[in-house]
Amino acid sequence: MKYLPMILMLGTLFTIAVIGCQRPIGPVMSHKLVVTGNQHAIPMYPDEQSYLHTSREKQDGGVVGVVGEVKQSLTAKEIDDQTPVQIVTSDDYGAVITVTDGPMKGATGFVAKQNID
Question: What is the pTM of this model?
């Protein structure tokens, strides 16, 4: 009988923990991807270095610019406009994101700063 209050208290705490774990924990702050200019989808690169290298090639124009366009189509995944994402890390050029909903849910990559809302 002297352990009954402690057993009831532990049982109550366990019940609260089980109920609390039934609700999924969502991201603290969610963002969405947005298209800019004449884009139809947002390119998501495997890493920031790929983004920087490809964007520099595209800006050069001429043959090098065409190579940059081809490289983007090969290395970057196309993500739909208004896709919800969670920012993992960010800097002056963009952010590493994780897609939180949609057909690419769970995908991680680098997106340019102007494409994040």
Answer: 0.71
